[in-house]
């Protein structure tokens, strides 16, 4: 038996075929252009591959309520051309197989819980910081859902007292994490590309400030046993030690657990690299296919 998996981000669709145990057979990558350009390529890739089910992790916001008329839709995304697009319906109509659907950050958290940096944890947060910011959560080994999936990138945060930047979020301006700490925010604030910022640039102090504030909020609400930070931004500026220090400073001794004490092994990069969401989509198939 074989499964298909898709990790659909705002930049690319990582597609692949695996065994029922999660061993990779084949992979392909397609740019996230418009639905009219990207989805036919994805369908063509999976056709004839004899997969039993498809796991799909998708950028959002998305509708995960199976009783909703718009279940399986990408909703009010800032990604042009994808607003109110029925991604699950389009794939299901073409492939005629079960499709298991969640946010790509929720599935990144799941992938890391099954095969990656959070293997020993029942409660995990995965945050990706790139062109956008998104987060997924596992609580007691279950993906977090309610009226929708988590939207951790739009957590409201305190503005740094020296930061006059107005923010880039289309919905919240400079009030939310994505509006102040995503790649567009960094590059517009400093008028430089991400890769050209020196390691001692003030930009990284601001990044650790904003990301640290968000993480403290996540800790106080969800009490995760592991926090995983991925995305392109985390590859620059030696951010991990700065963020860990900021989190401890903000907690100010209020939380005294082994995780906070050993923070170097608590706030960590993903073991699965850029494939966390892909393997989470595989895990969703393994969990649900009967």
Automatic annotation (TrEMBL):
EC number in record: 2.7.1.4
Keyword S-adenosyl-L-methionine: no
Stated family: Belongs to the ROK (NagC/XylR) family.
InterPro entries reported for this sequence: ATPase_NBD, Carb_Metab_Reg_Kinase/Isom, ROK, ROK_cs
PANTHER family: FRUCTOKINASE (PTHR42742:SF3), TRANSCRIPTIONAL REPRESSOR MPRA (PTHR42742)
Cofactor: Mg(2+)
Single annotated GO MF: metal ion binding
Keywords (A to Z) from UniProt: ATP-binding, Carbohydrate metabolism, Kinase, Magnesium, Metal-binding, Nucleotide-binding, Transferase, Zinc
Protein name in the entry: fructokinase
Catalytic reactions on record: D-fructose + ATP = D-fructose 6-phosphate + ADP + H(+)
């Amino acid at each position: 038996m074989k499964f298909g998996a898709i990790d659909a981000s705002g930049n690319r669709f990582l597609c692949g075929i695996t065994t029922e145990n999660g061993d990779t057979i084949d992979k392909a990558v397609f740019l996230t252009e418009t639905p009219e350009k990207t989805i036919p390529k994805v369908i063509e890739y999976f056709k004839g591959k004899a997969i039993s089910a498809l796991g799909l992790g998708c950028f959002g916001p998305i509708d995960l309520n199976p009783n909703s008329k718009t279940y399986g839709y990408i909703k009010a995304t800032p990604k042009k051309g994808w607003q109110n697009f029925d991604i699950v319906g389009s794939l299901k109509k073409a492939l005629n197989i079960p499709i298991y659907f969640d946010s790509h950050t929720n599935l990144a958290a799941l992938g890391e819980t099954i095969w990656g940096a959070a293997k020993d944890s029942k409660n995990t947060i995965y945050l990706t910081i790139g062109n956008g910011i998104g987060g997924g959560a596992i609580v007691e080994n279950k993906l977090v859902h309610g009226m929708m999936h988590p939207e951790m990138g739009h957590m409201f945060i305190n503005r740094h007292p020296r930061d006059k930047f107005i923010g880039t979020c289309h919905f919240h301006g400079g009030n939310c994490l994505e509006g102040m700490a995503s790649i567009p925010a960094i590059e517009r604030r400093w008028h430089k590309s991400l890769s050209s910022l020196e390691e001692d640039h003030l930009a990284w102090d601001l990044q650790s400030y904003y990301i640290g504030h968000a993480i403290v909020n996540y800790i106080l609400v969800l009490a995760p046993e592991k926090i995983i930070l991925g995305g392109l931004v985390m590859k620059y500026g030696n951010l991990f030690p700065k963020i860990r220090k900021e989190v401890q400073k903000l907690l100010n001794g209020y939380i005294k657990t082994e995780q906070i004490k050993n923070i170097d092994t608590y706030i960590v990069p993903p073991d699965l690299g850029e494939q966390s969401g892909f393997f989470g989509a595989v895990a969703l198939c393994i969990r649900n296919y009967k």
